[in-house]
């Protein structure tokens, strides 16, 4: 479990060079809300997508950039047989010991930040009309709200989130509830939202919502 919301002023100062060159859109939502589905649709409409959660998974996959430091700091017991981070074991540890989360973040955040900047700079030179930063803990990070031009929140009832995550990740309800408690509340996210995508009906409805959102974002440039 690698946190994907690096809290750093260096990230902001680097990415802020893109301000006024291309719209910078933050996309967030609670676990199981459907951020990936929304970002996939935005990519389909031409947006440049930088998914910090995907980057976090990549650097903790077998041979990932964070693995040597994690093994050195936490021990070989936190590395699976295939060489990846044992995410379940690490999840349990950071819930029990907040200092362990801070130690993990010191390892993962610089690597996530580096790759986030790299991808954003590359996409800004391509044909993407705007950039979307998918950040699960965007509100909690403390820095992203000062960087982005608009915030999109993917929202659905908490019970829907729980059911989706239990089915998707095969986690017990109690484990999912612990994750929800550690995240910002729906009310906190919605209070900061410029656009809200309601994701609790059909994929067709979601696609129509996202297409409308895409058109609204395009107007930012004008």
Largest sheet: 5 strands, parallel
Name of the CATH architecture: 3-Layer(aba) Sandwich
Please state the average pLDDT score: 91
Write down the CATH topology. Rossmann fold
Radius of gyration: 17 Å
CATH hierarchy, class: Alpha Beta
- List the uncertain runs: 6-10
Number of helices: 11
Q: Can you count the beta strands?
A: 5
Beta content: 5-15%
Question: Roughly how many Å apart are the termini?
Answer: 40 Å
Spatially, the strands of the biggest sheet line up as 2-3-1-4-5
Structural class: alpha/beta
Given the C-alpha coordinates, what overall shape results? globular
Name of the CATH superfamily: P-loop containing nucleotide triphosphate hydrolases
Which bin fits the share of residues in helices?
40-55%
SSE series: HEHEHHHHEHEHHHEH
- Assembly annotation: single chain
Give the topology:
Blueprint: H1 9-15, E1 24-28, H2 35-44, E2 48-51, H3 52-59, H4 67-74, H5 87-96, H6 98-125, E3 131-134, H7 138-141, E4 150-155, H8 158-169, H9 173-182, H10 186-192, E5 195-198, H11 203-220
Parallel strand pairs: 1-3, 1-4, 2-3, 4-5
Helix pairs in contact: 3-6, 5-6, 8-9
Task: Quickly list its features.
single chain; about 220 residues; alpha/beta; Rossmann fold; five-stranded parallel sheet; 11 helices; about 55% helix; about 10% strand
Could you characterize the architecture of this molecule?
Helix content is 55%, strand content 10%. It is built from eleven helices and five strands. Helix 3 (52-59) packs across helix 6 (98-125), helix 5 (87-96) packs across helix 6 and helix 8 (158-169) crosses helix 9. It has one domain (9-217): P-loop containing nucleotide triphosphate hydrolases (Rossmann fold, 3-Layer(aba) Sandwich), CATH 3.40.50.300. The relative contact order is 0.22. A five-stranded parallel β-sheet has the order 2-3-1-4-5, sandwiched between helices. By secondary structure, the protein is α/β, with parallel strands linked by helices. The termini are far apart. It has helices at 9-15, 35-44, 52-59, 67-74, 87-96, 98-125, 138-141, 158-169, 173-182, 186-192, 203-220; strands at 24-28, 48-51, 131-134, 150-155, 195-198.
């Amino acid at each position: 479990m690698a946190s994907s919301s690096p809290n750093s002023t260096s990230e902001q100062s680097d990415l802020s060079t893109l301000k006024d060159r291309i719209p910078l859109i933050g996309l967030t939502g609670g676990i199981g809300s459907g951020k990936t589905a929304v970002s996939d649709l935005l990519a389909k409409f031409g947006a440049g997508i930088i998914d910090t959660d995907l980057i976090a998974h990549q650097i903790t996959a077998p041979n990932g950039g964070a693995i040597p430091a994690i093994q050195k700091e936490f021990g070989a017991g936190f590395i699976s047989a295939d060489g990846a981070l044992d995410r379940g074991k690490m999840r349990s540890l950071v819930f029990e010991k907040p200092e362990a989360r801070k130690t993990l973040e010191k390892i993962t955040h610089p690597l996530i930040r580096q790759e986030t900047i790299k991808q954003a700079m590359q996409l800004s030179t391509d044909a993407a009309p705007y950039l979307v930063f998918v950040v699960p803990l965007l509100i909690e990070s403390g820095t992203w709200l000062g960087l982005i031009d608009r915030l999109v929140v993917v929202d659905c009832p908490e019970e829907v989130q729980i059911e989706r995550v239990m089915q998707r990740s095969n986690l017990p309800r109690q484990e999912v509830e612990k994750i929800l408690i550690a995240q910002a509340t729906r009310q906190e996210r919605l209070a900061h939202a410029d656009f809200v995508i309601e994701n609790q009906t059909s994929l067709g409805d979601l696609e129509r919502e996202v297409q409308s959102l895409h058109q609204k974002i395009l107007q930012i440039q004008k």
